[in-house]
Design a protein that fits this description.
It is built from 17 helices and no strands. By secondary structure, it is mainly alpha-helical. It has one domain. α3 packs antiparallel against α5 and α8 packs antiparallel against α9. It starts with 8 loop residues before the first helix and ends in a 7-residue tail after the last helix.
Amino acid sequence: MNASPGPGAGATAATGETEIAALLAPHPRGNWADSARRIAPLAWPVLVGQLSVLAFGTIDTLFVARASAADLAALAVGSAAYITVFIGFMGVVLALAPIVGQLHGAGRSSEAGRQVHQAVWIALALSLLGSTLLVFPQPFLALAHAGPEVAGKVRGYLLALAFSLPASLLFTVYRGFNVAVSRPKAVMVLQLAGLVLKVPLSWALVFGVPAIGVPALGVTGCGIATCIAMWSQVLAAAALVRRDPFYTRFKLLGRGLHRPQRAPVLAQLRLGVPMGLSILVEVTGFAFMAFFIARLGTTPVAGHQIVVNLVSMLFMVPLALANATGTLVAQRIGAGDAPDARRLGWHDLQLGTALATVMGVAMFALREPMLRLYTHDAAVLAAALPLVAWLVLFHVADAVQTIAAFVLRAYKIVTLPVLIYVAALWGVGLVGGYQLAFDVPGAVPASLQGAPGYWFAATCGLVLAGVALCALMVWALRHQGRHGEPANVT
């Protein structure tokens, strides 16, 4: 394929040279407010885009909750299975972001573009494996002890998502690259467009439109709508890359997709596999809660699914801040401005903690009206309300550990966080939660049995992870302060 630069290419090239010169220049020493002003323009488009992605699940939860409790239980189990597959692979693909961020900060645009081609090959290879796992979901169904009705609905939902996974991972390449070069608005626009398409599709496929012969497919309809929306986003992204002269400097287009190259692929995998494992452990620490809580019955897992969606919406703010800060820190490392990189990391940790505290307290105060937006089923509401008791501490700890993890990734410190997550989120959160939820010791208080026990243990695990990752971040930044280069640790 050949791309013609178009009439605006000269101006865009000049703008690109100015941008690169600004990246390479040392940044003047700034205070907390200065860092916030630099983070905000990157964070808010990421936040809007991530909220639109989360809205896919929120829309599905709202619609399916009105279809039937069995469909909602299937959505909880199916979503947990899909997230387990997608998120780990997404982490591998997103290793593109710190690599491109440092290359972009150093002014090496063509090298950044070549890395994108290698990321596409990685995404395609992972799609083949992931889609196979979704087509044959028996291990996930066994974990959940799903009955025949729920299991059948889960299979239909995951089959549709098996066709959606390649599009999701390819769009992750586009997202990781654009965020790394400080262009998150391009991603946000496509994510919002995908949501606009998703809402009417989900409604029509969940409830059916008899007038035009569309049957009511319940939870399976959600999966089909997601598949259509994701492939539409990928096609739109490809068209934008061809038409927008901004991408010319990166030489993304030319003679088609570059062949896989050993060195850049291995470089991304060395960073991406630990990143993917970290995210996988983090997500499965919570996704597997749905499998085990499903053993308690349809009502407990339905209540759990609603609270998970509520907490996930809150999480988008610290996640957006973490993405923006990780981008800026990686760029400043590439530009050789170590003091500014350290300063940005510290300031974002303070900002994220403060915002998470305010948002957590506000959501807890409004817990009952918020839960009633999802369902009016008294039994499901009764199952959900006790879980919200842990929301404030859960959210603050989640914000702290996420921001610290993204700063560490910008420094390419990715292996030790895996060990921290395994101990805290699997050891304390998942294993400890199982002990409490099912009263394995035989002396667990009634208030901590069932789903509340899992949420208590998960909160404790997040607190432990936050403390440990912050300690590792302190060590890494102090090491850089003494030696003038990133810490030699993975």
